[in-house]
Structures are given as structure tokens and as C-alpha cells.
Amino acid sequence: MTATLSHGPAAHTKAAEAAVRVDAVSKIFGHGPEAVQALDRLTLQVDRGEFVCLVGASGCGKSTLLHMLAGLDSPTAGSIAVEGRTGLMFQEAALFPWLTVAGNVALALRLRGVGRAERRPLVTSLLEMVHLEGFASRRPHELSGGMRQRVALARALAQNADVMLMDEPFGSLDAMTRDLLHAELERLWTERRFTVLFVTHNVREAVRLADRVLVLTSRPGRLSASFRVDIPRPRRIETPAVSALAGEITEQLSVEVRRHGHA
Amino acid sequence: MTATLSHGPAAHTKAAEAAVRVDAVSKIFGHGPEAVQALDRLTLQVDRGEFVCLVGASGCGKSTLLHMLAGLDSPTAGSIAVEGRTGLMFQEAALFPWLTVAGNVALALRLRGVGRAERRPLVTSLLEMVHLEGFASRRPHELSGGMRQRVALARALAQNADVMLMDEPFGSLDAMTRDLLHAELERLWTERRFTVLFVTHNVREAVRLADRVLVLTSRPGRLSASFRVDIPRPRRIETPAVSALAGEITEQLSVEVRRHGHA
Amino acid sequence: MATRDRLTEEVAGLDALDLPKAPRVRRAVRLWAGFWPKIAALALALGLWQAVVWSGWKPTYVLPHPWTVLSELGRRVGDGTLMTAAGITLRRALVGYTLAVLVGTAIGSLVSRVKLLRVATGSLITGLQTMPSIAWFPLAILIFKLSESAILFVIILGAAPAIANGLITGADHIPPLLLRAGRVLGARRLALYRYVILPASLPGFVAGMKQGWSFAWRSLMAGELLVIIARKQSIGVQLQVARDLADAPGLMATMLLILIIGIAVDSLFFGTLDRAIRRRWGLMDPATS
Amino acid sequence: MATRDRLTEEVAGLDALDLPKAPRVRRAVRLWAGFWPKIAALALALGLWQAVVWSGWKPTYVLPHPWTVLSELGRRVGDGTLMTAAGITLRRALVGYTLAVLVGTAIGSLVSRVKLLRVATGSLITGLQTMPSIAWFPLAILIFKLSESAILFVIILGAAPAIANGLITGADHIPPLLLRAGRVLGARRLALYRYVILPASLPGFVAGMKQGWSFAWRSLMAGELLVIIARKQSIGVQLQVARDLADAPGLMATMLLILIIGIAVDSLFFGTLDRAIRRRWGLMDPATS
Amino acid sequence: GGGSGATTAVPDGNGAGTLTGTVRLGMFPNVTHAPALVGLGRGLFQEALGPGVKLELSYFNAGGEAIEAMFGGGIDMTFIGPNPAINGFAQSNGTAIRIVAGSTSGGAFLIVRPGITRPADLVGASLATPALGNTQDVALRAWLTDQGLTYDVAGGGDVAVIPQANPDTLRAFQAGDIDGAWVPEPWATRLIQEGGGVVLVDERDLWPGGRFVTTHLIVRTAFLEQHPDLVEAVVRADLAAIAFCNESPDEAQQIVNDQIEEITGKRLPDPVIAGAWETLDFTWDPIASSLQESADDAVTAGLLKPVDLTGIYALDILNRLLAEGGQAPVAGL
Ligand SMILES: Nc1ncnc2c1ncn2[C@@H]1O[C@H](COP(=O)(O)OP(=O)(O)OP(=O)(O)O)[C@@H](O)[C@H]1O
Ligand SMILES: Nc1ncnc2c1ncn2[C@@H]1O[C@H](COP(=O)(O)OP(=O)(O)OP(=O)(O)O)[C@@H](O)[C@H]1O
Ligand SMILES: [Mg+2]
Ligand SMILES: [Mg+2]
Fold it and tell me: Where do the domains of chain D lie, and which CATH numbers do they carry?
């Protein structure tokens, strides 16, 4: 195997600008006739402080890529380099059922090394940010799907990572709540300037948030197109500019899906 | 408690037209100061063969309502009547991890009483419908999030229920796949004329599919508005008519959210 | 907090409707609901037993009347022998079991985390578990002479493998997503263990602790015969003596005592623990249970 | 199918890149990786033992040389007594355990599903589990006289509660979502049990079966002393005879035999079963294990 | 040999030693251990050892356990039956233990249900023994052979021999599942009194002089070498207890039953003690000849490897004490 993985500042020298470098990465699950190729020689790069959205058909390998970037899985071939600490918000909420809502968020802080005294106000402000301040002492099973997703968001933000990997973070939220959280996320990102790789199926959402939108081909995932979003911020999701670019990207996506047959 | 629950044809006499009747239903989780009121005297009705979409803020009680209609939970107050067999597609995929993809779908058929011989072709056609024909012998943990959701859809459709309750069935699918499945669902519904109660956060999707779109208030859920969709079928999600009505509904929703403060 | 208050108000408002009003009455009802089936089961069992005795299937010196056994039990309560014996045995059980939990947890943690150890000694744990207590007696005496420590040694060897196995099973069946979530949050090695693996394997661990208690108790019953130190009347000795004397009422009285202790420990300790975990984790679903 | 074929093609094409090529070699490597730590652990244990013997801590008639014990074991293998004894005991263990699994599963199923039974008798199961085997001997003899059935009875009483408890724990910890999914699909009562509860509680059930095996085996060791059917040299009798004769090499040879059987059963049966379940359910995550 | 309760005999001004240290003594709460229990009940051991010695007592249910404790250094001396003593001696190649005095003789019977009056009536019967290869098991098999009755390994033949625990034997006899049993006291008496059995064979009739060893006193060899004075004191107490048993049987029986109750928490019915007492002889003679023959029988029956018992007896102390009391010495092997 030529697969190599390097995390942390060691990879820094290679490309001063790149926070994430994915080089000819292939990922195959299983062996023999049962094998599924999720990614095929995917190459991409995310600059430091950049906000990149990733769109692609269901099952094209987006989650797989994020997992590999977070160091949870290793590529079958190719190399991956991530600069700084990664945070990952899973496609599922993945909350710890034995902890309360506040406990889930606090654990992220604790593991980051935040002292006990500072944790409490931070948890409160994070839960306020996702509009769940009244649910701090609830357990995950007492929440609705969208509420769980918001707790997961709060927990991911609590990590204060350098590279934030987000897997359909707003998928089960209503439009209103999502708009509010878009604004919050953008504000945070503007303040802290972390790097974001954001998977979504909502192309408008991608255009609303991203500096660049990457389109993946259907399984196996490969880079199909990259769109730079030059619409000035703050953007609003209903504006014609957003709609227009979203339409263009959607067009590209459906070409992809049509070409490859369906998953 | 005055809560009553009646399922099956016994409730038929009451209102010949109504497949689902929800009468002043309240739902409170927990007791005392810890209590959360999910629904507050909600009253609604779905006619036989009608396709109704339900939109509302995150945590407003949509899933709770669907669970009660499926007989999984009982209301704290009020009464519920459902005519015929209910099928429910959960917000989560809720697949059985010990069965393959085909096994999950086949189990639904088996429990419906479909004979062994008929099961195989039915499973194949259902998996084809959700574009997962190549994954019949995989296990749920080998699938992507969107693929799991499609298996859940196939399983729910396999139930061939009279009243189909769907909780954000297309939430984690890309736009292309969703469009295809919209068409499939609409085709099936036109053929079989079952009743559908469909929860979604995507207002355009609601307008694309529904005869009527109901808007719930923020927690506790109550009926805020009902929009009849008169756009002739087949509809397409990108058409201006759909966009216009969707805009109107979104407006109503955001008024709701703003009035109640946020969840 | 604002939200919570609003909710509380609304709930209060709803009281006018039709809400469950008296939680105290409900608690009494619930207690009673948990109690009467036990009483009924007991009455049924006694009735059956009495019926068998009356049927004359076996002479009463072999199968005594329930009444004879209960009065034998009552006599022992009265003259204090039961309290003394139960006290000695329970103290040994508690000390031995506590040590076994510590040892079992340590071994289970190590084996479940260190892959090499797992491969090398994983099955050995079950192997040790199948070793009957009496096989350890010579070793126990060798190391600890005839002392309480020898009994504790036998208990630990009996119970620790079961507890370790419970922890290992619990750790093996943690949903990978939770482990991944822990790793993503930056938990490695000890922190991962402390904050994710241990709490996540709690259900399996409690199940193992429960089985471990049974092993500990059975080992203790055998181990108490190892050393009859200074005429201490433990339950194990009572059992053996009743058997040696072919004393059916005595034997059955001791069996009843063992059953009562077992039931009490299970319902008071393990039952409560398990229910607490299940309630917290949301595994008690009113619709399905 | 088209998709699958396309994938296979692509995978074949990728071989040119850098794919693991020889699964057969890899399997051998994996086997070896699972084997050498066991050998190493064994060697270490033997070495330690030998060192203790050499230290002269205890006379060799109390703590014999490993070599003496191994050659005693070898002698028994040679003259067939070991095979005979192991054969008799294993046959009893298998029959008794199978019956215990049936009884335990039946009881576990009933108790986990029927709420009233659960409340009435749930803790009784643990109570029964703590009852030492010898307490059952008189009853066993009463009912079955002195026969193999008496031994089986003792095994069942020893193992069935553990298995029932495993099933109950497994059923208690099923995610409610899966139960709800089963109910929504129209599974009620028996169907719900058969298609959802039973498979979903399999991990806990297998854990219970494993503990049950230990109970069965230990009960058997005690039970084999119940009826020593004229010179049938079962392992339990060997153990007792070695003790009675103060025959340390004999005792340790029998202990080794018990360990070997325990390890073999665990790794061949329970280990395989557990791994199969975990692989199917996707509980083996390469990134986290 | 491991450590033990360390002692030193501190010479006294009067010439007699004032003993110090610890003696860890074992016995069984059983009527065949009557001298031991009487010695305990009347404080004879402590009296003989003097106030400077700590007496620690352990009680056992089976001879194997007592030997385990002996080997493990958990006890220094114990009253015990012949077979475990032989086993302990043989397993340690004659190093671990020595027999220093006798205690009890007799008390083993073949009890059968009424109607069986001759050995020939036993054809087709099933007979229980306490354990495979124990003294009574060996005795039954040897006797059957002498009577021309067969038994085979599978429990077949003329007579089915069933080794099982004594309590189970009583139950089985009461239930009619077995026809008889070769058992020691108090089980023989219990089979008669509670099971309605009759005596077919009194084992005393099979031995020269009607005497065979049932219980004797053994010591760890190392302890004997280090502390002969303490051993002597215990043997002295044994002699006193035996004398008491023979002189005041009624009082002795009371003491025995009291001790059994105190140790086990349960009293035997007084008639059982009295009945058993009749069948027992209390003697300081360890009856060496019966030990050798019993071992030989076991070897013949294939239940024991050939064993040389030479050196198992260390009777100097006993004989010295006997000589002091004007008694004839006893012989070892
Ligand atoms: N553990 C696994 N074992 C086998 N195949 C897997 C595994 N995980 C993912 N795959 C396969 O890899 C492919 C990519 O999965 P991935 O989850 O990355 O898709 P995705 O792009 O995130 O899709 P979605 O939008 O539906 O979430 C899928 O075909 C899936 O079947
Ligand atoms: N088991 C429970 N215990 C306590 N509270 C619960 C429970 N289930 C749901 N709730 C509460 O009920 C409310 C409604 O939940 P529900 O899941 O119905 O929302 P929803 O409308 O489906 O939201 P979403 O769009 O986020 O899925 C939420 O506030 C939630 O916290
Ligand atoms: Mg995904
Ligand atoms: Mg919901």
C-alpha cells in the first residue's frame, strides 16, 4: 500500500496554504467480489480558512472522505494530509446516550482541555447558539431528530477545531432554524477563520455558505467540478444570485448522475 | 384521561371520508416540572386517498404525532382515529442490523403475509425503485446514510399500508435522487390511492407532492395554517407555481417561528 | 430557562384539562403493582409444595411440609443462629465480591483494550470460569493457609472472570459510531476508556456483575467448607451440615435463606442499577415494554 | 447487478495500482497472529510455574514440576483414561447444556415478554442462580433416583438461570427504535418475538450462554460426584479422586484438562459465534478496535 | 516442609517444661472422632499443652481436605481416618506425615433391608459405599469376592456397587432404591434406626481381634521434628480422652453431641450417638496390621498404587507415655 496519512503540523511545510490535501485517494471497502469502491483517485485541496462545500449523489463517498480526513479510516491508496486539529460532525447525531445534552457538549470541552469552571458558561452559550438552552439537562432520547442534530452541532463547535468537517449538519432542520444556524456558523467562521469542509445535499445551502463548491461524481467518487462562489457576504439563501449559481451546480450534478446511471 | 385511540374499520362509521382524524390531541412527555408538552389540542383530518404534507419547526411534535397515529404512543388527551392499516417510515432509517438490505424489505413483506415465492420478485422491484438493486445482500452498516434511508423507504412501501406515515423520508438524499423518488412515490400513490401524511422540512417538496400542506406552530404543536395545493399534477419542483406557493408557506412558517420565539 | 418556565406554566394550565394529578397515589399503586405478583407467586409455590406433600408422593422426612421448613427458619431467626450465619456469610460475600469486581474490572479493561492480551488470554478467562471452586482449594490453602483470605481467594477466582467477561462483552458490543465520536472529540487511550468505553459498556458490565455475584456466592458456599474457623456458623456450613445429616427441613430452610438473599440482592441492587441505566439511556419504552 | 459487476471490474482494474494481492498468505499470517500470543502466554505461564517450583517454596508433592504434571497428562492420554473421562463428561455437558439452553430460552422468553411474570419471578432467576449445586442433590435424587438424569437435572438448574438472565438482559437493552420498527411492520407477540426481539437480543443472549456454559460445567463437576456409576471415570470424579488421594500431579493434570476444554469451547464455539454476530452487525470497526 | 506455629520449650525451674507456641489441630465433628471431641469438650488438650500454648482448631468434612491442609501447612496435627493418611504418606513419598497414636476402632457395617439374611440373598441387589476406593468401598469389594459374588465395572454382575455420599445413601435406602450399604458410623446406626435396616456384616468380625483402625492421630513430620514436646502433650490428651470415653461413656456421649452441635449447629439424635457408641472401640493402638491390609486390599482392587507404609508410624512418644502409665507398648510397621 502506498497510502500515507499525516496529521498535524508535520504536513505543514508541504503546502503552506493548504489545510487539507487529498492526493489520488482511493477507498475500497471489503475484498474480492464483495468489494465496493467508494472513492477513486480523488484529489482535492482546501486552503487554510477556506469554506468548501461538497455535493454529490447519495453513496458517492462524501462521508467516507470526511472519516478519512478525521483519521477514523485510512485510504486504500493515495495520501491525505490535514493541518491542525480536526473536528467532525457525523451524518448521524452520534450523541452519547448516557450523558445529558449539556454533558455531551461539556465532554467535548473537557477533552479539549477546558477547565471545569470555564466549561459551564461555554456550554450555556453553545446551547443558546443552537436554540436549545432549555434542554440542557435532557437526555438525547428525549429530543426530536432536529434537536439532536443541533446538539451534535454544538458539540462539534465546542471542539474549536482548526479544520471543521461537517456531514449534512442541517439536514433535518426546518428552513427557519437552518437560516439562523447558517448565520451563526458564518459569524463564527468569520471570527475564528477555521477551515470548513461541509457536505450537503442542499445546493442553495452550499452556495449560501461556501467559498467554493466541489461536485463529486457518483460512486466511485471523483472530483467532477469545482465552482467558486464570488457572491459577496453576507448572502441570503433566497437571493437570485444564489439561486442562479445553485441552478448551474444542480445542472452539473444531474449531468453526473445521468452519466453514471444511478447508484 | 379522556384519551381514546381507535384503529381499524371500527372508526369508519364516524366520518366516511376521513382516513385520519386527530381530535384535540395533546401530548405531554414526563411529569411535573420536567414535563414537555409536544402537542397542544391539535385537531386535523386527512381524507381517504389524500396526500397531506406537514411542516413545522424542529421539535414541534411532528414525529410525535406520526408515532401516535401508528399506535406506538398514546395521546395524553384527545382522540385519534385511523382507518385501515398504517405504515410508518421513521425519521431514522431504523433498519434491522442483523438482516441484509433484502432481508429488511422481505421481512416487511413476510409480516404482511406475502408468501415466500412472491417475496423475491417484490423485493427486487422495490430495491430497483429506490435504485439499490446492487446492494441486496449488504448489511445496513455497509451503506451510506442516504442509502439506508432509501432501504427504509423500500421497506415502508413494502407494507402496502392504507395510511402511509412518512417522517422526512427524503431528508438525506441529494436533489437528483429525491426528484426521482418523488416521481416514484407519486406514481405509486396515483396507482394505489393510499392516504399519505408526509413530514418534511423542505417546503418545495411539500408543494411538489401534497394535496394539502399543514403548518404546525412551534412547540407545543398546534395547527397554524392549511394550504390547499391546486397546481395540476404532474408537478415539477422547479416550476414558478411551486416556488410561489412554497414562498407563501415559508412566510407563514417564519411568522410562526418568530411569534413563538425559538425552540 | 425561559422556555422551561413557559412549558411549566402551560403544563400547569393543562391541569385543568385532564392530567394525572396525584403522583403520590400513583407511586403507592406502582409499589403495590410491583409487590402483589411476588406475593402471589410465593403463595402459589407454597400451595403447590403443600399439595405435593399432601399427595403423599414422598415421605415427609424427605419432602417436609412447607410449614415445618418455615418454622425451622423461624426458629433459626429466633435463636439468632440465622442472623449470625447470614452475617458472617454476607460479610465474606461482600468483601470477596468487591475484590472480585476490582480484579475483574482491571482484567476486563486490560484484555478488552490491549489486543495482544486479548488474543493471548481472552479464552483463558472463560477457561478459568469453568474451573470448579474445589480445584482451587489446595492452592488457596498453600498460599493463604486456613484463613478467611483463602475463602476470599476462592471467591475472587470464581467471580472475577465472569465480571471481566461481562466488561469485555460490553466493550465488544459498543456501537462503532460512539467510539468514533469519542475519538473525534479527541479521546485517546485512557480518556477514551474513561469517557466512552466504560460508560458505553455499562449495560454488559452490569449483566456480568450480576452473573459474577452468582459465581461469587456459589464459590463462597463451597469455600466456606474449606475452613470452619472457630466455630463460625456460616450459611455454607449450615448447608453442608444439613446435607450431611440428611436433615431435609434444615436443608430446605437454608435453601430458602439463600433464595431470599439472592432475590433481595438482585432486586435491590442489580435491578435498581439496571433500571436506572435503562431509564437514563431511554431503553424503557412505554409503547413496547 | 449491473452496478456490482461494474464495481468488480473496477476493483480488478485497480489491482494494477496497489491492492492487497494474496488473501491466502494473509489468512496464514492472520492465523499465526492469533496463535503465537497464546503460545507465548503458555510458555510464560509454564516458565513462571517452573521458577516457583525451583525456588523451593513448597515441596514437589504439593507443587509438582510442570513436567511431572504434563507427563501425568500424557500418561492419561496414552492409556486412554483421559479420553474416556473427557468423553463421558463432555457428553453429559453437551446434553445437559443443550437442555439448559432450551429451558433457559423458554424461561427467558416468557419472563422478558410477560410483564406479570417478570415482576413476579424476575429476581427469582438470579436467586436460583446463586443456589449452589449441592443444595439440589437431594431433590435430584428424589426425582431421578441415582441416574444420569439426576446429573442433567443439576446441570440444568445451574445453567438455565444464567441463560435466561442473558436473554432477559439482551431483550431489555434492545434499542426501542427497533422494537417500534417491528411493531410498525405489523409484528405482534410471537412474530415480534421471533423476528425482532430474539435476533436483537442475540449479543446479550450469547453472553448469557457463555456464562451458562461455565455454570453448567461447574455444576457438572459437582454433579458427577452425585452418582459415581461404577468406575465411570468422569472428569468430576477424577478431580475428586485426585483431591481424596492428595494427588497433586493428578489434580493439576485434571485442572489443565478442564482449562484446555474451557479454552477450546470458548474460542471455537462462543468466540466464533460472537465474532460472526459482531461482523454481521458491523460492530467490528477497524478504526476503533 | 513449611513453617508452622513456632514454639520453644522453655525449661522450667521445676524440670518440667512450660510449653509455648501454637498447635493447630484438626478433627471432624463426627462420632468416630469421639476422643478428639471429648478432649476438646473437657479441655484436655489445652490442659496438657499448658497456658503458654495457643490451640487453634480446624474442622473438616472429608479426609482429603484435612490432608490438603496438612500439605499446605494449614494445620500441624489432625485426627483422621486410615485411607487419607495412607494417601498423604504415599503422595509425599513418605515424607509429609506420621501417625503418632490411635483413637478409634470399629464402627463399619454392611446394613441391608430386612429379608436379606445371607450373602447369597444379595444376588441382584445394589449396595452403596461412601466413595469410590474409600475404606468401606474396598472392604465391600474384598468381602464380595470372598463370598464368591461378582461385581463389575459397569455396576453389573451379581451385585451393583454404587459409591455415593452417605446422606444420599440414607435417602435412597429409605426410598427403597438400594438394598443396602457398607457405611461407617453414625450412618450405620441411622440406616438401622431411620431406615429400618439390619446388620448383615459387622466389619469387626472380619478382622483379627475384631479391631481395625477407624480414626488415628497424625502429625506433620516437620512439626514432629521441631516440636516433639507439643506432640507429646497432644498425645497425652488423646490418651486421657480415650480413657474418659471408656470409663464414662454416658457423659462422653453427651460431650460428643454437645461438641457436634457447637461446631455444626446441629445435634444428632441422642439414640444415634448411643447406638453408634456400641459399635466403636476407643483405643490408643493405631492397629498397624489393619492399616497394611487395608492398603493391600485397595491395591488388589486396583484403587491404589502399591505403597510401602514403612515408616508411617512414629510411636516412640506414645510408647513412652504408655510405659509411664504402665501399659504395654504398641507396634508400628
Ligand atoms: N463500512 C463499510 N463497508 C462497506 N461499504 C461501505 C462502508 N461504508 C461505506 N461503504 C460504501 O461506500 C460508499 C460511500 O459511502 P458514504 O457513506 O461515503 O456515502 P455518502 O457520499 O456519504 O452518501 P450519503 O449522501 O448517502 O450519505 C457507499 O456505496 C457505501 O455502500
Ligand atoms: N420520549 C420523550 N421524552 C421526552 N420528551 C420527548 C420525547 N419524545 C419527544 N419529546 C419532546 O417532544 C417534542 C416534539 O418532538 P418530536 O420528535 O415530535 O419533534 P419533531 O416535530 O419531529 O421535530 P424534528 O423536526 O426536529 O424531528 C420535542 O420537544 C421533544 O423534546
Ligand atoms: Mg454520508
Ligand atoms: Mg421528528
Answer: 61-280 (1.10.3720.10)
